[in-house]
From TrEMBL:
InterPro entries: Cys/Met-Metab_PyrdxlP-dep_enz, OAc-hSer/O-AcSer_sulfhydrylase, PyrdxlP-dep_Trfase, PyrdxlP-dep_Trfase_major, PyrdxlP-dep_Trfase_small. The lineage of its organism: Bacteria, Pseudomonadati, Pseudomonadota, Alphaproteobacteria, Rhodobacterales. Belongs to the trans-sulfuration enzymes family. MetZ subfamily. It comes from Tabrizicola piscis. Transmembrane segments: none annotated. One of its GO terms (cellular component) is cytoplasm. It holds the Pfam family Cys_Met_Meta_PP. Keywords: Pyridoxal phosphate, Transferase. One of its GO terms (biological process) is transsulfuration. The keyword Ubl conjugation does not apply. This is O-succinylhomoserine sulfhydrylase. Homotetramer.
Length: 429
């Protein structure tokens, strides 16, 4: 290897891995082990004191899992990170070092439904809370921040409607308030957007989606930019002051830009245990090898399908930001210049009934509650994920009764269009 920085596609295949030192194995081995033999008592003591980096127990770190975390860190341009058991686990792990009872996170109203749920109810069990505001309006974000706010949280490309977050503008609000911006980059993947370059402090992923890419693994990643000064105020005592959960270690002064990552491993993974397993990490590493190729095809197909739908008389509105008709078209060119993802919604003339018929008649598309698969996926939110909501709430969430959501796969685009065409014919007959 030369000294010049490697390109993104190369990093997808090579970052953070070398042939196995013990065997020369070219591929990262699946280290299916729980524990690691210490060289001697002194070595063990140094590991537990964080004076030497190494493996102790796989709830904390495992070579296969670390290879995955570090590869995504390289792709996102971060300083450190961890892999964990799901995207939802990653969100808790990202908040854990910076939150405390009574503290809140200011979050976008346009988040993945599961995250709205996690932030509305479940985190209250920890004494944390969330305030939801419209992240298209920096003034509204500013107004929601109070003395107990410890982070801003949004998604790069918002699910399901494909709204794009102006990360630079949001990061400026976070900077002024002296708090980190956490960006869920699941729907963009680092191929389409690297939020740290737009001012994000932390990036979280559901590795379940594009990173793995084929619907085989549930996993999550947290990446820390290493750029936030946790000691600039007294807002982040777990990082800036002696941490009672780790015999009084002062993480930020001692570990610098790796403070957040080491806190996440030494305390977060140790005590919350939301660890990824080596098999899952292996599958995700395999997926990432083709991330760049897949994302290119995902956005290429999504653009063609969205344009085809938009001109079809059976269709109402198409929300894809790659279309000039989208309110987010300009922002997409700034935030996701290689393409605004492959997830969007469209409305069908004929309403709820037509949508249900469409779903029942697709053959290539799979009717599932997932996204980011190689396969094209479709769901009618109003009759599934959003069926408990009132019609008014469904409309607000971008899941009106006449709307279906698609995650466009990497099949031949002619086949994707042909499938929608035949199903639409039956749905609107
Ligand atoms: C799926 C998803 C999550 C949750 O991830 P899991 O791996 O299912 O826990 C979070 N955010 C977004 C944007 C998602 O699509």
């Amino acid at each position: 290897m030369t000294d010049r920085p490697m390109g993104f596609d190369t990093l997808c295949i090579h970052a953070a891995t070398a042939p196995d030192p013990a065997t020369g194995a070219r591929q990262v081995p699946i280290y299916q082990t729980t524990a690691y033999v210490f060289r001697d008592a002194d070595h063990a003591a140094k590991l537990f004191n964080l004076q030497e980096v190494g493996y102790i127990y796989s709830r904390l770190t495992n070579p296969t899992v670390s290879a995955l975390a570090n590869r995504v860190v390289a792709l996102e341009g971060g300083a450190g990170g961890i892999a964990c058991s799901s995207g939802h686990a990653a969100q808790i792990m990202a908040l854990f070092p910076i939150m405390a009872p009574g503290r809140n996170v200011v979050a976008s109203t346009r988040l993945y439904g599961g995250t709205i749920q996690q932030f509305s109810n479940t985190i209250r069990k920890f004494g944390w809370s969330a305030k939801f505001v419209d992240f298209d309006d920096p003034k509204a974000i500013e107004a929601a921040i109070d003395g107990d706010t410890r982070a801003l949280f949004c998604e790069t490309i918002c699910n399901p409607g494909g709204a794009i977050s102006d990360l630079d503008a949001i990061a400026r609000v976070a900077d002024m308030a002296g708090i980190p911006l956490i960006v869920d980059n699941t729907t963009a993947s680092p191929y389409l957007c690297r939020p740290i370059e737009h001012g994000a402090t932390l990036v979280v992923h559901s590795a379940t989606k594009y990173l793995t890419g084929n619907g085989t693994v549930t996993g999550g990643i947290v990446v820390d930019s290493g750029k936030f000064n946790w000691s600039a105020s007294d807002k982040f005592p777990s990082l800036s002051q002696p941490e009672p959960a780790y015999h009084g270690l002062v993480f930020h002064p001692t570990l610098g830009n790796m403070a957040f990552t080491f806190h996440s491993i030494a305390i977060g993974l140790r005590d919350l245990g939301m660890t990824m397993n080596p098999q899952g990490a292996h599958y995700t590493l395999m997926g990432i090898e083709t991330l760049a190729l897949r994302m290119q095809r995902h956005v290429e197909n999504a653009q063609i399908v969205a344009e085809w739908l938009e001109q079809d008389p059976r269709i109402g509105k198409v929300t894809y930001p790659g279309l000039k008709s989208s309110a987010y078209h300009h922002l997409a060119q700034k935030i996701t210049p290689k393409g605004p993802g492959a997830l969007f919604t469209f409305s069908v003339k004929g309403g709820y009934e037509a949508c249900v018929k469409l779903i029942d008649n697709v053959k290539l598309f799979s009717h599932v509650a997932n996204l980011g698969d190689t396969r094209s996926l479709i769901i009618h939110s109003a009759s599934t994920t959003h069926r408990q909501l009132s019609e008014e709430a469904q409309i607000k969430a971008g899941a009106a009764p006449d709307v279906v959501r698609v995650s466009i796969g990497i099949e031949n685009v002619e086949d994707i269009i042909a499938d929608l065409d035949q199903a639409l014919a039956k749905a609107t007959a």
